[in-house]
Structure prediction request, 858 residues.
Amino acid sequence: MARYLLHRLWQSLVTLFLASVVVFVGVRALPGDPALALAGEEADPATLAAVRADLGLDQPLVVQYGAFVKNLFRGDLGTSIATGTPVTDLIATTLPVTLWLSLYALTVAVVIGIGAGVVAAVHRGRWPEWIANGFTLIGLSVPSFWLGILAILYLAVGLRWFPASGYVPVLEEPLRGLYYLTLPALVLGTALAAVIMRQTRSSMLETLSADYVRTARAKGMRERRVLSRFALRNSMIVVVTIIGLQLGGLVSGAVVTERIFGLPGFGKLTLDSVFTRDYPVIQAVVIITTLAYIVINLGIDVLYSLINPRIRVGGKA
Amino acid sequence: MPARTATAALAGLTLLLVGCYPVQPRAATPERPDVTTVSAEGTSVEDGGDLVMGLSADPDQLDPTTSSSLYTRYVMSSICEKLYDIDAEGELVPQLATALPELRDDGRTVRIPLRTGVEFADGTPFDAAAVRTSLERHLTKEDSARAAEMGPVKEVAMVDDRTVELRYDQPFGPITASLADRAGMIMSPTALEELGDDFGNAPVCVGPFRFVERVPATEIRVERDPRYYAADEVRLDSITYRIMTDANIRAANLRSGDVQVVDSVSPTSIESLLREPGIGLLQTGSLGYQGITFNVGNADGVGEPPGEVDSPLADDRRVRQAFELSLDRAALVNSVFDNWFQPACSPISPETSFATKASNACPPYDPERSLELLEEAGLETPVQLSMKVSNTPDTLRLAQAIQGSVAKGGFEIEIEPVEYTTLLDAQTRGDFQLLQLGWSGRIDPHGNMYSFLATGQSSNYSGYSDPTVDRLLKKAARQVGTAERAETYGEVVRLVHRDDPLIYLYRQRNLTAYSEDVVGVSTYADGVVRLSRAGFVEGDD
Prediction:
């Protein structure tokens, strides 16, 4: 196990290095330079040149990359070109927003998805299943930007149940914070809820027709106990796997949702930084996302081996 | 062969899709009188409250010296007063100065009298020394975006404690207008001393409000400053500028009551917004323009001497004249922008005191003559051209309308939509035949013409060069009287219509929507939305 972890760690470092090179060269290959994007139509060459020199953008690419890596090891991600704010500050303010949003959306998705899935499986062929299936169809086929616009139009503007935008830090004011996040979390969670519902329903149906369930029923076990003891528990293994796989989708879906609801999250930061060619921010965002994916994947692999000893990591162990 | 058929079919389809935006004849633009202020008359205004404004773009650094974003001016207008300002009529008026500058020595000395008994938000007294510190920072800071706007200043001198003098070798007419913009914002010397280059992270000036905090990419908050010299005119406790880049989101938030004021409303969404009860609209003509730039000599990038450009437009001014003659400006602008914007033919707004008969002149719509000119130039019609435009919905509709309009005059243009930053890049490098963009505008014509039309200047994207135009533009900057200067600028406009390096197309209106719960919001010709005298109507919640 230790050897395996070391090996994975080495692999991760190589991945990070490659990602940093690709993003570094990639953003600089885009047309439009940050000084110009910042000055916009008011561009004045003397100012632009001064800004570029100030940011070290007039240096050769290799020198720029060297400085970037050197600073990275010191924990310095640089300064945003657009606003002059340290990138670490930007990330520290935006990342929690996205994490809370994703967590809330995940909760919404799990509660709705599993609930509807169980209902659909139990009431197979009757109206509750039709409703649940209809929901799945909508959840999977309606894009989140459209759903977001509808939600704003009807729930925020029409009924005024929720604010149309804005954010309050959840840790500072938990209730208001969650209130502001409700609409975006519902929108973001819908697609995932549909996936979970479908999975729950099919694996429950499968379990319910299994021999041991029939045996249990024949022995007179109560239906409620059959459902919770066997059917639900056994279906959960697959569902948990699916949720793990969908986490990445949740984060990318957050980019769209954050934009619609004007949430100051990581996704919005990513998008804005690309539009303004804010090199230091784009680089930091990509590095951090890569790191997150590496950690999540490693975590899942290790967890698997702990949950199910039959799955061995690293071949022999 | 099938591949070629497919390509042809695809091209045909694209042509069909982009080529069919109808330019319907419309009635002439209805009178749209400027509404510059939400009047407080007949209402009683509450003391206090937090006003939220939806801002369409994130300001850059809140530093008057280095800022280059338009939106920074919105936020600064409530925390950072200027030596001069403009009023609802677009006239220059004193703000931190007490009178318009006194010109001595044929305009080579500009003497500015200052308010007394004024303090910065940090308690530092406002005096001539503070003004000099700010102006010198504008002139000397390496990455200053102000130095050029202030002209060839030789010296900033203190006459006494409440009088500052700018000294020039040659008169510089546009200086008052510059001091009514960011160059005239005076920063607290104590804060400058403390913060240096980081001044923009916690700006301290004289203003009705003072800076509280900025949450990057999210919002900027300011609160009422009790030290402000006219504090009794301020009603609000605080203002929150919330950044909302999407126009639909801004509109939705205004409807839902989450924000009270939003800027840059799109003409196509006004009608539906105004049908909503409790929402009003401020509108003013803009000092800027939207136009089409022809690349006539921008071969090596802007600011470089003009070079050879391979394009039928570059060599022959008749071709460019033909293009202008085939533009039906009124029909185009009115159909695309639902009669909200005004056709324009020059960089000088007809509403300013610099407008003359020459500057208001407009070439007629005459596609027949256009065809004749193209024949004289020995070109086969349709003349094929490509035009780079920004990829926003409004601009795309405009581009398609232009495409339809010039077709009658013998042009076939291909539209190349690109993302904004890329468009700026192409414009700077000279990588275009035709390009559609605009300019936000300055009060003084110098700021709208010199750097765009004089040889080798920083915004001369077309690569245009004409010695007479250069001479006239320099002459106008040295002239002091408005009437003489207007005359000179009129001559320049006449030459620009002859050479057509840049076709002026239309003038936007600054459209600001507000909730009728608030009064005292104003926006003038410079497009800046002013909230410092706003307040909530009593009795509303």
Observations:
- Chain A touches chain B through 50 residues (CB under 8 Å).
- The longest helix of chain A spans residues 223-261.
- Residues 1-74 of chain A form one domain.
- The mean pLDDT of chain A is 82.
